[in-house]
Write a structure and sequence with these properties.
Number of strands of chain A: 12
Largest interface: A-B, 45 and 44 residues
Structural class of chain A: alpha+beta
Order of helices and strands of chain A: EHEEEEEEEEHHHEHHEEH
Distance between the termini of chain A: 43 Å
Oligomer: homodimer
Strand content of chain A: 15-25%
Radius of gyration of chain A: 19 Å
Shape of chain A: globular
DNA sequence: CGCATGCTTGACTGAACTCAAAGTCCGTGG
DNA sequence: CCACGGACTTTGAGTTCAGTCAAGCATGCG
């Protein structure tokens, strides 16, 4: 059924409770503007004048990088399938995980400013991205319409998510951060149409810890603690949220 | 000379070494597109076709809020003068300081997504903002040109700054974070045309601590430590960086 | 099978938080 | 003018939480 059977286990990752991989017959490597709007869950209205354009897709295997820091900017990407991580590498080599983009998220907007990407994007699982070339965003000849509006909207959403994430790393004890992280993951899976209660984390404890600014041991201990309390059930990367309310209580 | 003499001290705030307030005769409350480009330090090229439009300014006294969480989105703002803080308030009432916007920074883009602002902006000093109404950004009739391009560029820069800030709050001991904070402040003052070595912080220790995710006491102790080491000279909010290199060493 | 990677758990240590007191600056009002 | 109050800052002492180091287990891959 799934066309990635032969790949390493992490690549076979799918959210628990997801529909059985809708046939993937559409192996033609192009996406319509409408598909992008659906992926982004854009709720504004468009003029339907852009139906003509097609956008090229890009496949990534788990572990591959979509783009690196310093690479020249060539467009934005929308995640069609899979999970990734974005990170910044400091001068001293230390890495900071910024986010874990998944289906429907937008990538690469940090590249517009200096005309090169300023973060690094790595696929955690096999991925399928859709590219929106910079030409489609900036060419002055093109009608200033749907793509523009959608891009603004999506970028704004990314900013909000980033702010929220940043706020997430704030204050609170380490266990509370982990609880908040799980709650937010749950909401994201729900927004993508998957089960908010049962899901499989695509990232390692180390990545989570880096993201939340705690050590991987602390993440592990927090998971165990929440498990012992009966709030969640953890088995490696399989998460089962038993009481979302209790989880929320833990965030304070 | 300065037209704010009668205001409380925090309102009289000016970066040390700034030019003596260039006459402020331009009390007409409108700004040109060119002024916005200069403020943002936009380095792309524009078509000069937008010279006609004028943008309304908005004055704020220290302590006033530019906009609150939940307020309907009505446009972006560029800081013309002064310093502010942006913050998110959590459900439980806890506040997280996201950034300290100053001259040339862009505000309000988090409002596009849900059509309402999702952060709260407070003036730390008397401020002068320039408003870019949402109509100028989205009206389909308008030529898709300079304003669009500038907005993209500026937003991307904001994202980069936010990512950097987020990464700043990462890892490292509290003293290192404070050192990094000072270094970044120094660079921002330099970018605004002020002295990178001598400046006055517009925000309290509490705000800095909140922003860096440490307590105000820890910030104070870090300042004292850096002072005793001869790396900086601190006197309340007056900062004098004696050795930028030593400060950088401290970030690791 | 053996190795590499990732995860869990324990014991110890140290850095940052909390609580507390005192000092400084500033604006206000007597 | 000076006294007062409030906001901000500094510094100290005790405590707690999370990092470090280390060992052991599970999984998956060659």
């Amino acid at each position: 059924m799934m066309d990635v059977q032969a790949l390493p286990s992490v690549a076979r990752w799918q959210p628990a409770g997801s529909q059985p991989a809708l046939k993937l017959e559409n192996d033609e490597r192009w996406s319509t503007f409408e598909e992008i709007l659906n992926l982004l869950r854009f709720d504004g209205h468009v003029h339907q004048a852009n139906d003509t354009g097609l956008f090229r897709r890009r496949r990534l295997k788990a572990g591959q990088t979509a783009f690196c820091m310093g690479q020249p900017f060539d467009g934005l990407y929308v995640v069609r399938l899979g999970a990734l991580k974005t990170a910044m590498t400091h001068l001293d080599g230390a890495e900071h995980v910024l986010a874990f983009p998944m289906k429907g998220d937008l990538l690469g907007f940090d590249g517009v400013c200096k005309n090169k990407y300023l973060s690094e994007v790595t696929a955690l699982t096999d991925c399928d991205l859709i590219k929106i070339p910079s030409a489609d965003l900036f060419s002055p000849g093109r009608a200033c319409n749907d793509i523009e509006r959608m891009a603004y909207w999506a970028i704004s959403r990314e900013i909000v998510q980033e702010q929220t994430t940043y706020a997430l790393s704030h204050a609170a004890k380490s266990e509370a951060r982990v609880a908040r992280f799980l709650r937010i993951q749950s909401e994201r899976f729900k927004a993508m149409g998957y089960s908010p209660n049962r899901f499989t984390l695509p990232m390692t404890r180390r990545d989570i810890g880096n993201h939340l600014n705690v050590t991987l041991e602390t993440v592990s201990r927090a998971f165990s603690a929440l498990d012992h309390l009966g709030i969640i059930a953890v088995e490696r990367r399989e998460i089962n949220i038993l009481s979302l309310d209790a989880l929320r209580q833990f965030e304070k």
